[in-house]
Amino acid sequence: MKIVLIRHGQSLWNLENRFTGWTDVDLSEAGLKEARQAGIILRENGYRFDVAFTSYLKRAIRTLWIALHELDMMWIPVHKTWMLNERHYGALQGLNKAETAEKFGEEQVHLWRRSTNVKPPALDKNDPRYEADNPKYKDVDIPLTENLLDTEQRVVKYWTDHIVPQIEAGQKIIISAHGNSIRALIKYLDDIPADGIANLNIPTGVPLVYELDSSVRPIRHYYLGKEGPLPDGTIPKTL
Ligand SMILES: O=C(O)[C@H](O)COP(=O)(O)O
């Protein structure tokens, strides 16, 4: 069986090079096109889905909508969850990544971005970026910051409790999520150690297919419609 993972198309803050995390920014023009292209590639390759999963963030939700629209499958059940949200970037959310590197040094910013266990500085609960009053998080213990292991814990819990049972029931699944929530899932699925995951990046808007065995463990994976070499640091075509 196969599942498809897709990182949302380019967002407005990817374009502006800002730390985003749980900030709910929309897709850029290029991101809208990437999402459409992803749907076209899926359609041309004969992909069909029974159930979709996405986060509470509109860049992933819209990417999914656009891709499903291209497939003429907007009717399928879509499960949304905060547990597939991007890694919470704490007090870095909104800051420009290059300016932050100038201020704190490349090495520190690399640790914040790519280590598994270093947490970015935490948000203060009085900070307007802390969304305690947002109704979508009313039942959620909103993190103040997260490292990749924190993200992995919630993503894998959702995967195990909600997605695996659907796969085992024979449902065809697409998951539209985020750079780090997908990295966290891949880290778990492919059992990648901390130093391996640091160098793994997920391109925006490119469907990533995982073939799974009957125990829902990965056999192989590949990107759809991505000719030639992938950008530096993206997950290799085969592991
Ligand atoms: O949340 C963000 O800023 C990005 O979309 C992912 O960021 P990263 O490449 O710094 O992990």
TrEMBL record:
Which reaction(s) are listed as its catalytic activity?
A: (2R)-2-phosphoglycerate = (2R)-3-phosphoglycerate
**Molecular function GO labels:** phosphoglycerate mutase activity
- Coiled coil (UniProt feature): none
PROSITE patterns assigned to the protein according to its UniProt record, in alphabetical order: PG_MUTASE (PS00175)
Q: Where does substrate bind?
A: 7-14, 20-21, 59, 86-89, 97, 113-114, 179-180
Q: SUPFAM superfamilies, alphabetically?
A: Phosphoglycerate mutase-like
Active site: residue positions: 8, 86
Report the record's Gene Ontology biological process terms.
gluconeogenesis; glycolytic process
The pathway that the record names for this protein is: Carbohydrate degradation; glycolysis; pyruvate from D-glyceraldehyde 3-phosphate: step 3/5
Site label Transition state stabilizer, positions: 178
Which SMART domains does the record match to this protein? PGAM (SM00855)
Q: What is its EC number?
A: 5.4.2.11
What are the entry keywords? Gluconeogenesis, Glycolysis, Isomerase
Name the family.
Belongs to the phosphoglycerate mutase family. BPG-dependent PGAM subfamily.
Report the protein's function.
Catalyzes the interconversion of 2-phosphoglycerate and 3-phosphoglycerate.
Q: What is this protein called?
A: 2,3-bisphosphoglycerate-dependent phosphoglycerate mutase
The primary gene name is gpmA
